[in-house]
Amino acid sequence: MLYQKDYTFYTYINDVKGKFEARTGSWVGPFSVLYIDNPVLAGYSFSSSGLRKTQKEYGQDLYEFVQQFYNLFPHLLAIDLYIGGQSYAGKYVPVLAHWIHSSRQNAPTRIPLRGLYIGGPLFAPAVMFPENFEHLYNVGAISEHQRTTGRKQTQDLVDRYLTGELDPADTIRQILPLIFGTQVPSYENYVTGENVDGERFTAIMTSDRLRKALHVGSLDYVAINNTFFFQLYSDIMSDTRDKLSELLDAGEYKVLIYSGDVDVMVSVAMVEAALLATPWSGRGAYENSTRRPWYGPPSPTSNRRPLYGYYSKTSQLCRVVVRGAGHQTPHDQPAISREMMLQFVHDDCVGTMAT
């Protein structure tokens, strides 16, 4: 599975043949993949008309891009489209999918959206941030005092934001030191302590071969734009649960939300809190669902099947927790992530059981 850092937005196009042959004659993947550098000023993306810092702004830009893409390549309209991403794409994926969904309600569109998937998604910060301390407490990184104190301080800031006492940017400036103030090996992977930085991607993406293939000329490549990150503060507290719930209730789209079990940045507890607070018709069934183990096939030398993780299937929602993965799940467990995507696309979820 192809993979890139948080601030890259992904669109997966499922190849109806399951795979395609590259010019070299080698077989490449089961998917055709289109990467969109988003927000503007990340990766190779640039703009002459200013930054896009609201859901309306970047949603419209992404939707217009998708329309232009299909105008250029209309033969791809025959192929199912899956929109997905990682982390902050918990904003971008539901927003773009909702734009496409809304356009279907208001006017005919041929965009073949079939599903969406998000890994370690930040899509309801006001609900999720106070839960940050639960995972840290459960792994023994903080004490009961630190858990209750940190949670209360964060919840107080969230409440002040919700009542309008604090604006979004001020809220984030005060919350980030609280939720990232614990000395853990890595917020991306609590066990390995590894942080997936942009250096390795920069070396690849700025190579002469890639520059030529991407037709980027002399444009600068920015794996992580810290300057823009601070300008994004006003959007961080924005919520996409309303869009996600409408997409789930539409009954037209498959939805995969996955997490790594050793992710501290957007932990399983944080994602669960947001899902349980998402107002869709299947929320009650999801709350009462039973999570089941997801096993891989036995190895050639053993009948023991490896435990890939845990999952539940509730209506259109496939919820997966990947074992041994942190915030960058495809990086930490590439083979399992690839299998997860294959099963989601072909079978609607991993495993075979539904709740």
Automatic annotation (TrEMBL):
It comes from the Eukaryota. Keywords: Carboxypeptidase, Glycoprotein, Hydrolase, Protease, Signal. Pfam families: Peptidase_S10. Gene3D superfamilies: alpha/beta hydrolase. InterPro entries: AB_hydrolase_fold (IPR029058), Peptidase_S10 (IPR001563). The keyword Glycoprotein applies. GO terms for molecular function: serine-type carboxypeptidase activity. GO terms for biological process: proteolysis. Belongs to the peptidase S10 family. This is Carboxypeptidase.
